[in-house]
């Protein structure tokens, strides 16, 4: 899967500042179309309405967590192949294993920097 | 003990009276004497019981008085009505100040990013102004640090009071029945693996996570 900077990216986080930070970092990386949602349920609604090329989601949100969103996405025939990166403060090995088992493509622990975000996106899309 | 010796003495007197009365018709006088002895026995019993009950009641009263003192020393009303609300307000202020500062910093950074770099003079002005605003916004850390120190002080005060109370009363922890709401919250945390941020020594490093995806 090639990295397309024009693709729609969905950022999911219940903290507006974090959405703003990720939006700015993505803009700096060259992404043009960035959308956001405040929790898993809102994200799922948007995913069913429009096609997104990448989901970047927090874990700990209410009412639907990023972990639940990941499982919903992977369980949906249409959405199942959408690349999914978890960006979270949940840094226990147990969480990483569970996310990997559920089908996450990569996992970033907060706080993170632009270089980490860039390298994980590149890794997901098989870019050097 | 006192009651037992009195009872023994009175039993002996009754026995002596019965021995004297053997082979004789029982007279009203004998019955009266026995009744008097029995009454004396019961009097000793009630007297000894009064003393024991009084001692028990006095011990209970002393214990209640001490427990009241220990509870007063806990200053539960002051903790609930003053210390904890103040700490809560301080934390609310910390959250608000952090949010304001973050907003100011991001707004200025975004302004700099949006400024046309080909117009050197305008770009320099925007960068200088933006950086000054960012420096000023960073001063929030001093105030929030002081507020957090006040909260830490409150927590230490509560810890001290509760420790003294637990030590004075000798209470031990027991299992308690959690509310349905609390049980649901704990179940959600467990099912959805919600631990929240970890301390540095407990967190899995990004490099170790990366190794799991190689």
List keywords for this structure.
heterodimer, A: 128 residues, alpha/beta, five-stranded parallel beta sheet, globular, B: 214 residues, mainly alpha, rod-shaped
Structural overview:
The complex is a heterodimer of chains A (128) and B (214). In chain A, helix 2 packs parallel to helix 3 (66-74). Chain A has a domain at 52-60 and 70-90 and 104-112. Chain A is globular. Chain A has helices at 16-28, 40-49, 66-74, 93-102, 114-124, and strands at 8-12, 33-37, 54-57, 84-88, 106-109. The model of chain A has no long low-confidence stretch (mean pLDDT 94). Chain A has 128 residues and is of the alpha/beta class. In chain A, strands 2-1-3-4-5 form a five-stranded parallel beta sheet, sandwiched between helices. Chain B is an all-alpha fold and 214 residues long. Chain B has two domains: 2-71; 75-168. In chain B, 81% of the residues lie in helices and 0% in strands. Chain B is built from seven helices and no strands. Chain B has helices at 2-21, 28-74, 76-114, 120-137, 140-169, 180-191, 206-213. In chain B, helix 3 (76-114) runs antiparallel to helix 4. The termini of chain B are far apart. The mean pLDDT of chain B is 86. Classes of the chains: A alpha/beta (128), B mainly alpha (214).
């Amino acid at each position: 899967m090639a990295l397309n900077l024009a693709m729609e990216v969905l950022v999911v986080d219940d903290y507006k500042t974090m959405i703003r930070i990720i939006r700015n970092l993505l803009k700096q990386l060259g992404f043009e179309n960035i959308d956001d949602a405040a929790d898993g349920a809102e994200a799922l609604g948007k995913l069913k309405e429009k096609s997104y090329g990448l989901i970047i989601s927090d874990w700990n949100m209410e009412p639907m967590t990023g972990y639940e969103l990941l499982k919903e996405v992977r369980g949906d025939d249409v959405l199942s192949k959408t690349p999914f990166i978890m960006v979270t403060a949940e840094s226990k090995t147990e969480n990483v294993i569970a996310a990997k088992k559920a089908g996450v493509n990569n996992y970033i622990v907060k706080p993170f920097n632009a270089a980490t975000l860039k390298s994980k996106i590149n890794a997901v899309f098989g870019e050097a | 003990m006192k009651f037992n010796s009195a009872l023994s003495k009175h039993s002996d007197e009754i026995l002596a009276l019965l021995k004297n009365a053997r082979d004789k018709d029982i007279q009203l006088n004998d019955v009266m004497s026995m009744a008097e002895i029995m009454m004396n026995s019961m009097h000793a019993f009630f007297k000894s019981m009064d003393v024991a009950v009084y001692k028990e009641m006095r011990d209970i009263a002393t214990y209640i008085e001490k427990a009241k003192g220990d509870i007063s020393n806990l200053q539960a009303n002051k903790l609930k009505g003053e210390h904890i609300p103040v700490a809560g307000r301080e934390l609310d202020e910390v959250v608000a100040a952090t949010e304001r500062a973050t907003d100011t910093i991001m707004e200025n950074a975004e302004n700099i990013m949006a400024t046309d770099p080909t117009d050197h003079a305008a770009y320099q002005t925007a960068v200088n102004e933006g950086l000054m605003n960012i420096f000023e916004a960073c001063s929030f850390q001093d105030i929030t640090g002081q507020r957090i120190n006040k909260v830490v002080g409150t927590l230490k005060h509560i810890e001290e009071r509760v420790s003294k109370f637990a030590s004075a009363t000798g209470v031990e922890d027991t299992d308690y029945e959690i509310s349905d709401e609390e049980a649901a919250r704990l179940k959600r945390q467990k099912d959805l693996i919600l631990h929240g941020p970890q301390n540095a020594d407990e967190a899995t490093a990004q490099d170790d996570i990366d190794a799991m995806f190689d």
